[in-house]
């Protein structure tokens, strides 16, 4: 499909990081993936495809190939679960809660920050610029939501909601400072949006939307467009696992709409966000690929978009050849 975008993603990756990531790390992952692929498919050393851990490349790849055409999670009810089941998992959550955000970190996340600090700065800046337009903010895939814990007391007139699949989401977040304007919702966010029980003026996600298949991303974008004015993504972004072009950092607008690249490190779905956003009436204000705070071998895609129209953007005809 050809399409025409108004947005162009900028890539600001310093040469040293580019070399380490796009050459050294890229080569390491690709040769390992190729070896495991051959061993699996020749039957010499078949991988356990049910064991979906980061270290099991074949199982991760298999999962992505099986789910890439899905338009939603197949069994949302089975996906909803309790997170803190024992002392170990409670300890993990408590450890995550220690990553408290403060003004210094949020104002300059690249110094001592994290992806959570990066997204918090984007949301903070948007709220400062559009204080009168935004009354409600929602973090989808919130997990331990240090971002809302930081933002809620600073914007007491805005309602913040953290959404995730955990039945004990509120308890998971109880180790963070609480605010009366910060609440929790358990569920599959896409379903909550479709039923109209979740709405916000500003939605944000970090390290979450790369879990969505391309059609699920499209469905989410369609649903959040029904209520919101702004959407902010702060997502891990990598060279493609299967591309042999070591010079290439893919821009989202170059990816074939409806398809996804598989990102190198976590085998994430990397989709054409720009297409999905413009299709559902958003104008992309910022789209950039930058280093990740606290991640020595890592890029982040940051997108800020504003909904400008109820109608889909006039699509089509692009001079560029899409990849993916
Ligand atoms: C890698 S974690 C990131 C958590 C948090 N945003 C952070 O950066 O620490 C991804 C989160 O997205 C949620 N998630 C995964 N797939 C999802 C989906 N299809 N719809 C909504 N949330 C999803 C998971 O439950 C998980 O909490």
- Report on the biggest sheet: 8 strands, mixed
Using the alpha-carbon principal axes, give the shape.
globular
Strand content: 15-25%
| Beta-strand segment tally | 10
Ligands in the model, by name, code or SMILES, are:
S-adenosylmethionine
Question: What class, by secondary structure content?
Answer: alpha/beta
Q: How would you describe what is shown here?
A:
This protein has 324 residues and is α/β, with parallel strands linked by helices. The chain has a domain at 10-71 and 106-134 and 201-307. The protein is 34% helix and 17% strand. The chain has 11 helices and 10 strands. It has helices spanning 15-41, 57-67, 76-79, 87-97, 103-107, 115-129, 146-154, 169-172, 189-194, 214-224, 273-279; strands at 10-11, 136-140, 159-164, 182-186, 202-206, 230-237, 260-262, 269-271, 282-291, 299-307. The strands form 2 sheets. Strands 1-9-10-6-5-2-3-4 form an 8-stranded mixed β-sheet, sandwiched between helices. Strands 7-8 form a two-stranded antiparallel sheet. Strand 7 and strand 8 (269-271) form a beta hairpin. Helix 6 runs parallel beside helix 7 (146-154). The longest helix has 27 residues, at 15-41. The N and C termini lie close together (12 Å). Mean pLDDT is 94; it is low at 314-320. S-adenosylmethionine binds next to helix 6.
